[in-house]
Amino acid sequence: MAAESQIPIASQVPSRRFAVRLALFYGASFGTMGTHLPFFTVWLKAAGIDALWIGIISAVPAVTRFTTLPVVTGSAEKRYSLRGALIATAFLTAICFSIVGTQYRAPAVFLVYAATCCVWTPVLPLTDAYALRGVARYGLNYGPLRLWGSAAFVAGALVCGLLVDIIAARHLIWVIAAAAALSAATSLGLQPLEWPKTAAATVHGIRGLLRDKGFLAIVLASALVQGSHAAYYTFASIHWQASGLGGLTIAGLWTLGVLAEIVVFALSPRFTAAPALLVVIGALSAVVRWLIYAQDPPVVVLSLVQLAHGLTYGLTQVGTMNLLLRHVPAHLMARGQGYLAACAGIVSGSASIVSGVVYGRYGEGVYYVMVAMALSGAIVMWLARHRLAERTAHDQPQSAASGG
Question: What domains can be seen in the chain, in order of their start residue?
Fold first, then answer.
C-alpha cells in the first residue's frame, strides 16, 4: 500500500471526511450492538422465554450469516453500491426491531427476530468491506477507524446497564430499537466509495477465492476463535444476573472488555507481528480466558479476565482484517467479507444452540466447549501461517493497485 500512503494535500480533505463519517456510522451501529448484545437475552427472559428458546433465538443472527447475508453482500457488490446497501439495511433494521418489541411468545419472537437479522447481520460485513476499500484508497489504518465502534458499544452498554435498574426489563427492547434508529440516521452521511471492476475479473476472482487454501484458513480460523465467544455473548449476562450482580455491574464488566478492545485497535498500527501470528495469539488467549470462566470466578477475578477481550476479540479481528486486506482484491471485498461472515454464522450458530443445551445442564461448564473451539482456531492458523506469509510476499507488489 506504499503508493496509496502518499496522499496529496488536496486528497486529505476527502480522506478526513471519509474517516469521520465512517467513524460516526461505526459508532452508531455498534451503539446498537452495545444495547443488544448484553441485554437482549435479559429482555427475552423478562418476556417469559425459557433457556432452550433463548439459545435458539440467539442463534438466529449466526444462521442468517450463512443464508441471507451472502446474498445481500453479493448483490451490493454486483448490482448496488455499498453505501446504498448500508442505508437500506440500517433503516430496515430499525423498523424490524420496533416490531420485535411487540412480540412476547417464543415462536413469534423467533420469526420476527429472524426477519430482523436478515437485514441487520449484513450491516457489519458491508461496513467492514466499505472501510477496507477506504483503507486501500486513502492509505488509512483499519484499527483507529474501527475503535469508534467499540467506544460506542461501551456507551450503549453503560446506558442500557443504567436503565436496566430503572425501567422494567421488558422495556429494554425499545432502547435497542432507538439505537438502531440512530444508526439508520447516520448511514445517510456515508459518502459514495466504489471500486472499478469488470464482470469477468469478478467471476474469476470469486472462484479463485474459494479455491485459495490460505483464504479458507483465514475464514475458518477466525470463525472458530470468534465463534468461541458464543456462550459468553448468550449467557454471560443471564448468569451474572442470576449470581446477584446488578445491571450497572454487568454493564461495567462488558465495558472493561470493550475498553481493552479499544486499546488494541488504537495501538494496532504499531503492531509488527505477522497478521497470522496475531490471530494465533488471540486464539490462545481465548483458550485461557474460557478455562477461567468455566470455574465461575468471583467478580474481582472476572473483572481482570474481562480485559482479555482485547486479545480474544480485538487482536483476532485486527489480524483477520489485515489478512483479508492483503489477500482479497478490493473489488471482491464485500463478498470476501460475506464468506467470512457465512462461515462465522455456521460456527457461532451451532455453538449458540449447543450452548443453550449445555448451559441448561452444566451451567458455566459450557465454556469448556468454547475452549475446544478456540484451540482449534489456533491450530488452523498456525498450520497455515507459512502459506499466508508466502502469499503475502508474492502479492505485495500489486497490493496497492488492487487494494488488497
Answer: 11-402 (1.20.1250.20)
